[in-house]
Amino acid sequence: MGLRRMPRVYLIRHGETEWSLNGELAVTGTTDIPLTANGERMVGEMGPRMVGQDKLIHPEQVRHIFVSPRQRAQRTAQLMFAENPLPNCVVTTDPEVAEWDYGKYEGMLTKDIRKEKPNWDIWTDGCPPGETPGESPEQMTARVDHVIARIREIHAQATAESNSPEKVEHSDVIIFSHGHFTRSFIARWCDLPITAGYHFAADAGGLAVLGYQHSSLKEPSLLGLNWYTEEQIRGK
Questions:
Q1: How far is the C-alpha of 215 from the C-alpha of 218, rounded, in Å?
Q2: Longest Cα pair distance anywhere in the chain, in angstroms?
Q3: Has this prediction a pTM greater than 0.70?
Q4: For residues 19 and 11, what is the distance between their CA atoms, to the nearest angstrom?
Q5: Which residues are annotated as a binding site for substrate?
Q6: Active-site residue 99, yes or no?
Q7: Alpha carbons 159 and 226: distance in angstroms, whole number
Q8: What positions constitute the catalytic site (predicted)?
Q9: Which residues, in sequence order, are bridge partners of residue 173?
Q10: Which helix H or strand E contains 40, and what residues bound it?
């Protein structure tokens, strides 16, 4: 018998928005902008590719979904499961999985931030207060770590309840969130400092898969990165 299929976390970044199209990297956190028409179409195409009985995300395996309060994440979640509803699944709109709070820098271009603060790097400098409080790397680390602790409790409970020797049943978690949250989550899931998030890609509509090695909840791992992005669906 092979290794037991362990619980997973699927991290899905919202689809295309007007700001995510901006090549100058305007930072979008609390601003509640919608998907573009193209973003809606692409997410609608992505769902059937990744969700289904014989697909990466098996509907009956999903135990809990966390969704950012922002409409771009909410709509992405709605479109993703339009053709494959999830039975016996708890869905939570949760501010803890919202994007990094950019504070004063909300809506600014990276180049303009660096005119004010040369060599600014969100991973080490964070964001000062503005209309919202902003978040430092330490604050973001604490928030992400709390989400991870909650998910590991879900995974531990599912593992304790499952009688199957082949897989931990009804144990997967999905998070619909944003770019910097996703990259921060990957780093912290793998017990890396949040600054390591710089090295992970999270394109619009992209999917990251996290889980465990060697059938052990003590060995959290990154299993897949930046799958099913809009660019891949376009065939670029």
A1: 9
A2: 59
A3: yes
A4: 20
A5: 13-22, 28-29, 72, 99-102
A6: yes
A7: 27
A8: 14 (tele-phosphohistidine intermediate), 99 (proton donor/acceptor)
A9: 9, 64
A10: helix 37-50
Nearest Cα residue to 9 out of 212, 220, 210, 231: 210
pLDDT of amino acid 94: 99
Q: Which CATH number fits domain 9-22+36-99+136-234: 3.40.50.1240, 3.40.190.10, 3.30.40.10, 3.40.50.12780?
A: 3.40.50.1240
Tell me the C-alpha distance between 160 and 55, whole Å: 25
Task: Chunk the chain into consecutive blocks of 10 residues (it has 236) and report each block's average pLDDT, rounded to whole numbers.
Answer: 86 91 71 94 92 92 98 96 88 98 93 94 97 97 99 97 92 98 99 98 94 96 86 54
- Whole-Å CA distances, 195 to 28, 83, 175, 186: 19, 37, 21, 11
As a whole number of angstroms, the distance between CA 52 and CA 47 comes to: 9
Q: Tokens standing for 74?
A: 């909410």
Query: Which one from 14, 64, 178, 180 is the annotated catalytic residue?
Result: 14
67 CB-side CA count, 13 A? 19
- Structure token pair of residue 228: 């099913």
Tokens describing residue 91: 């869905």
Q: Side chain identity at 31, as an amino acid letter?
A: T
Locate 116 and state its tokens: 């004010």
Catalytic residue from among 99, 106, 135, 230 = 99
The Cβ of residue 236 has, within 10 Å, a number of other Cβ atoms equal to 7
* Cα distance between residue 236 and residue 234, in whole Å: 6
